[in-house]
Amino acid sequence: MTASTPRHQFARGLKGGAPFILVIAPFGLLFGVIGTEAGLNLAEVMAFTVLVIAGAAQFTAVQLMVDNAPVFIVLATSLAVNLRMAMYSASLTPHLGQAPMWQRALVAYGLVDQSYAISMIEFEQNKAMTLPERFAFFMGSFLIVAPFWYGSTLLGALVGTSIPDSFALDFAIPITFLALIAPALRTVPHVVAAFVSAVLALALSAMPYGTGLLLAALVAMIAGAATELALEKRS
């Protein structure tokens, strides 16, 4: 058996995150196209994707900008979409919270859906991993997808509308989140939160500037937390 070392875990992180390339590439390509169609220049599109590095929030913000939504609504809705990152951070704290500040800063930047999902599954299954090994695994899972996210966004921004509609790049968005969410639905509170958010997001889709999504996310988090508390009391 190969000895577990940070280098070994980094390689395992790369391997674990590699399948996400199949959806990250078209996801980034689509954002590059949509960003340029929305009027952003190449530098703005790339700054958006490198600094924000949150596909769902980026698509949301660009769409609201196209709809001429007030700046407050753009910021608030994008923040709501990314509120899951706060929950990701909280659940990662027991595993990576004791790392040096510079490592936690890198984890904060690399905290995307893919790196979080694969890392949490690994950390929960392999509790014997040391802190350096966990950090190495997390960074491996992020660094395998990041170049494809940057590169595909750049390609999409450069080629723009020359990509035929028949390519249907928008398939990458729902597939990405289905692949991430499905394995995470391991408990009743998770299922309740997912169900409530889906139902309310659809029911409130007519609300202006995507504010229905804000309300759906808030109610779903409350429902999930309330379910967890109820189950704890019962047990």
From TrEMBL:
A Gene Ontology biological process noted in the UniProt record is:
L-valine transmembrane transport
User: Topology with regard to the membrane?
Assistant: Multi-pass membrane protein
Q: Name the chain's protein.
A: Branched-chain amino acid ABC transporter permease
Domain of life, per the record? Bacteria
Q: Which GO terms describe its cellular component?
A: plasma membrane
Instruction: Please give the PANTHER family that the UniProt record associates with this protein.
Output: INNER MEMBRANE PROTEIN YGAZ
Its annotated compartments are: Cell membrane
Alphabetically sorted, this entry's keywords are: Cell membrane, Membrane, Transmembrane, Transmembrane helix, Transport
For the keyword Zinc-finger, the answer is: no
The opening ranks of the lineage are: Bacteria, Pseudomonadati, Pseudomonadota, Alphaproteobacteria, Rhodobacterales
The family database entries (InterPro entries) matched by this protein are listed as: Brnchd-chn_aa_trnsp_permease
**Transmembrane spans:** 20-39, 45-64, 71-90, 135-160, 166-184
Q: What is its main location?
A: membrane
Acyltransferase recorded as keyword: no
The Swiss-Prot or TrEMBL record describes its family as follows: Belongs to the AzlC family.
